[in-house]
């Protein structure tokens, strides 16, 4: 689904950005441009970032040295 209509960014693109190394909403915003025009998408984009980071953290919980992520 489209999260940011101004930039044409989908929830899948946000998730992919996190899987590729973005560690916060700020990183996603800088890489995809989400939330930089009208700002109406910011709440939904942050929610997708939080959920995805939570999933990544859960999947890494079983690792000896889990990576740390922060939601901005």
UniProtKB/TrEMBL annotation:
Cofactors (names): [2Fe-2S] cluster
UniProt keyword terms in alphabetical order: 2Fe-2S, Electron transport, Iron, Iron-sulfur, Metal-binding, Transport
Classification via Pfam families: Fer2_BFD
Domain BFD-like [2Fe-2S]-binding: 2-49
Gene3D superfamilies xrefs: BFD-like [2Fe-2S]-binding domain
Superkingdom of origin: Bacteria
A GO MF label: 2 iron, 2 sulfur cluster binding
InterPro entries reported in the protein's UniProt record: BFD-associated_ferredoxin, BFD-like_2Fe2S-bd_dom, BFD-like_2Fe2S-bd_dom_sf
Family: Belongs to the Bfd family.
Name this protein carries in UniProt: Bacterioferritin-associated ferredoxin
Organism this protein belongs to: Zestomonas carbonaria
């Amino acid at each position: 689904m489209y999260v940011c209509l101004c930039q044409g960014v989908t929830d899948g693109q946000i998730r992919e950005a996190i899987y590729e190394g973005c560690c916060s909403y700020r990183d996603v915003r800088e890489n995809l441009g989400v939330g930089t025009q009208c700002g109406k998408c910011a709440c939904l984009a942050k929610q997708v970032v939080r959920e995805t980071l939570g999933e990544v953290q859960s999947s890494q919980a079983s690792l000896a040295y889990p990576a740390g992520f922060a939601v901005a």
